[in-house]
Amino acid sequence: MSNPETIIDNVYKVFNYSGRDFLKHAWREVVGSNISIVEAPTGYGKTTLSQAFTLYNLIFGFKSVISYPLRTLLEDQLNKFRMLGEKLGLKDFVGSRYMGHHESYYYVKPVTLTTIDTLSMCIFGLEPSELDRYLKALYIGESITSTLGHYLFSKATVLLSNIVLDETHLLADSIKSLNFLAALVIIAHNNDLKLLLESATLPDAFIHELKRVYSGINVVKFSEDMDPEFVEEREKKEIDYMKPVEVGEDKYEKIMEWLMEAEKNLSDQGLRALVVFNTVREAVEFYNYLKKYSGKIGVSNDNVILIHSRYKEKDRGDRVDKIRELSNMLKEAIKNKQDTKNIQYIIVATQVIEAGVDVSSNVFITDIAPANSLIQRMGRFLRYPGEKYGYLRIWYEDLKQFKNKYKVYDHSLVQRTLDQLIVFKTFNPHLPSKYRELINNVYRIEDFAINTSEVNDLATLYLGLAHVKRAIEKFLDMGGSFIRDSIQIPVIAESDLSSKNIYESLIPMSIEALKPQIVVGVLVKRGNELEQEELNAEGLSIKGLRTILRRRSMMPDFIGVVVRGKYDYEKGLVLEV
């Protein structure tokens, strides 16, 4: 199986995939290069490359680290990698390593699926589960040797691993994550590691700036000439596209109007709608609205699903399983050329749907977002072969009422995306040749202004065994994350403080979403007991609160932030604003 062609063919056999000529071409390029970027359409099967990559590494004595910017992506892919190992008779082949999951401590398994946040810490020797020891060494003066040198394991494992970064475009969202990516390219090049970057939407400006860091990056872009069958199938899809519509307080009514119109016109194939919001609050509000007026739409209440980032892990898993069940029913019906009009659902979601959830829709309704995010979302629209007709609707609110951000996104990127879309008479989000113009007109060189000094500092941080103290200081100086401007922090609703398992009730949440009026206190561990530490947050400014929470979250006794709100299985964590 050491022949590269044989390796990728084995992946095809395990999953009963039909081989794609472009993926085989891309695979040859990946094997022949140390650092590669592969760009292919959403839903094209780029995971095949990651899976072949792990088998290649296994044969040649390397470990594999497959990194994802979102844990939902990781969780979706983990079962596929497990199946690959089982079908090939490989025991203990794969494990995960991310917040609360320690299957592959120090990345010891042959294949480790991890988040980019965890990788960014481990690559500099900061094993997340031992962060309290590092902090004690820094603040209390304990020797760093109290960790027994465990921090060296992560560094050493990375040196023995080849790395894949999936959905790389998500690392272009901020200069901080972009700097880390550039540093990783340098580290991979200097240590002769293979690094594979995958995405469907990488602007030319982004690639240009990354190649300034290392000119030897091999860029492999999807070629329509290599897969005319795929291109023909995608071009046959008929899309009822309407230019973006400005909405006001009537936005939920407008969305309902679109759903009702689509249901009427799609009665012969069934309504499968995906409605995507930019904030959790809006998604929950529309879900409530939809439930209130459920009689207007002929979709069973059981198949009206809300999904966002503020669910307990098991509850989120239940939603993903339900969506997967519906998706499998649809794929099976299409494959067997059966009637699909009884397979109906409405999924109300936030950005979590952009990656890691295999689902399709024939009605796609979304708030405006930067071009990259929009194309990723629309990868869940008419996704499967055989789906031929659908409605695409985009709304936006008056951008003048927003300043630096349009909700959670950069205002200027949203404005540029809107300016492009309103002149399009038609729009096909399925083929790079159709959406590349949009992406390249929206993103500019200055949007990816890599800080060379910062990149070099991160790259040198990796060198030397004695640098872990400097890594801790750098980690704290960067606000507790090498990747994100807004760190994720565990929170718990007041209503869950009496829960039998507090740890299962913790929900990761962006620190930017925490405001003084909703923060009650901090949950800490004293000995074997959990206690609530009061915090007079209402007298603090937002900036002051975030500074306190960042520092407090780094302390060894910290468990989570207690917030005003209730947790509901159906709606997730609902904050009292």
Outline the structure in words.
With 577 residues, the chain is of the alpha/beta class. It contains 19 helices and 24 strands. It folds into three domains: 4-228, Rossmann fold (3-Layer(aba) Sandwich); 238-429, P-loop containing nucleotide triphosphate hydrolases (Rossmann fold, 3-Layer(aba) Sandwich); 486-575, no CATH class. The strands form five sheets. It has an eight-stranded mixed β-sheet, sandwiched between helices. Strands 9, 10, 11, 12, 13, 14 and 15 form a seven-stranded parallel β-sheet that branches. A hairpin with a 2-residue loop joins strand 3 and strand 4 (101-102).
List the defining traits of the structure above:
577 residues, alpha/beta, Rossmann fold, 19 helices
How would you concisely characterize the structure shown here?
With 577 residues, the protein is α/β, with parallel strands linked by helices. It is 39% helix and 19% strand.
- The CATH H-level superfamily of the largest domain is P-loop containing nucleotide triphosphate hydrolases
Beta-strand percentage range:
15-25%
CATH topology of the largest domain: Rossmann fold
CATH architecture field of the largest domain: 3-Layer(aba) Sandwich
Distance between the termini: 58 Å
Helix proportion range: 25-40%
Number of domains: 3
Low-confidence stretches: none
The major sheet is characterized as: 8 strands, mixed
What's the helix count?
19
Order of strands in the sheet with the most strands?
4-3-5-2-6-7-1-8
- Give the overall silhouette: globular
Average residue pLDDT: 90
Coarse structural class: alpha/beta
Task: Please tell me how large the radius of gyration is.
Answer: 24 Å
> What would CATH call the class of the largest domain?
Alpha Beta
- The count of β-strands is 24
GO molecular function: ATP binding; catalytic activity, acting on DNA; hydrolase activity; nucleic acid binding; RNA helicase activity
Keywords: Antiviral defense, ATP-binding, Helicase, Hydrolase, Nucleotide-binding
Pfam family, one: Cas3-like_C_2
Protein name: CRISPR-associated helicase, Cas3 family
